[in-house]
Amino acid sequence: MKKIFKVNCPLFQGIEQKEIESVLQCLNAIKKSYSKGDYIWHAGDKTDYFGIVVKGQVNIINEDILGNRIVIANIGKHQMFGEAFSIANVDAYPVSAQAAIDSVVILLKSEKLTSTCKNACAFHKILIDNMLRLIARKNIKLNNRINCITKKTTKEKLLFYLVSEMQINNQYEVIIPFNREELADYLGVNRSALSRELSSLKKEGIISFNKNNFKLLDIEKLKDIYSF
């Protein structure tokens, strides 16, 4: 197998790059390319694999029979998705995974990760330890998302999300992974209402933005209208 991943993937932390090829073979890794809008899997598909984004972005979405959709998470380069469902051995994915932009993904067999390797692979313990740590971190991030979507108003949800992302990056400027429609889906709000709040916050001099680049301009004004 050709080298298809770099050592800075958190799942492979502690494993040398030269050994990663053997690990991927052990996990029956499959490398696939997807165009924007392609589904990696649909809700209801069997949970045979979990994925790692090599290039691009993947959205995890929940869609109902009426066509309503919510973006649950955006998965960026070197991040995993679907691992909790796959390792928990649930029968089917409850959510869909869709390429947000043209993307390259590695799909790995979860059973190969959790079962003993017939070759007595020395890296299984490292992989499992890394996996547990990554799942724990995702749970923390999920709690933050719950806090976000339970805010009462569109403005509160928007500000909570932007400030949280800025805190993660430790700066007052952030590039978010969503366009306007995807951001509205992620926050669970109406797109028109979101646009109105963005325009209002910009007019008030609290934030500035250009496409998906946002900057906090006046923290004191922010404190006046919203308390975190």
List keywords for this structure.
228 residues; alpha+beta; Jelly Rolls; Arc Repressor Mutant, subunit A; 2 domains; four-stranded antiparallel sheet; 8 helices; 23% strand; HTH_CRP; cNMP-bd_dom_sf; transcription regulation; DNA-binding
Describe the structure.
The protein has 228 residues and is of the alpha+beta class. It has 2 domains: 10-138, Sandwich (Jelly Rolls); 151-225, Winged helix-like DNA-binding domain superfamily/Winged helix DNA-binding domain (Arc Repressor Mutant, subunit A). Helix content is 39%, strand content 23%. The protein is built from 8 helices and 11 strands. It has helices at residues 17-26, 83-87, 110-114, 124-149, 154-169, 180-187, 191-203, 219-225, and strands spanning 30-34, 39-41, 49-55, 58-63, 69-75, 80-81, 96-99, 103-109, 173-175, 207-210, 213-216. The strands form 3 sheets. The protein has a 4-stranded antiparallel β-sheet with strand order 1-8-3-6. A 4-stranded antiparallel β-sheet has the order 2-7-4-5. A 3-stranded antiparallel β-sheet has the order 9-11-10. Helix 4 (124-149) runs antiparallel to helix 5. The longest helix has 26 residues, at 124-149. The radius of gyration is 19 Å and the shape is elongated. The model has no long low-confidence stretch (mean pLDDT 87). This is cAMP-binding domain of CRP or a regulatory subunit of cAMP-dependent protein kinases. It comes from Paramaledivibacter caminithermalis (strain DSM 15212 / CIP 107654 / DViRD3) (Clostridium caminithermale). One of its GO terms (cellular component) is cytosol. One of its GO terms (molecular function) is DNA binding. Residues 152-220 form the HTH crp-type domain.
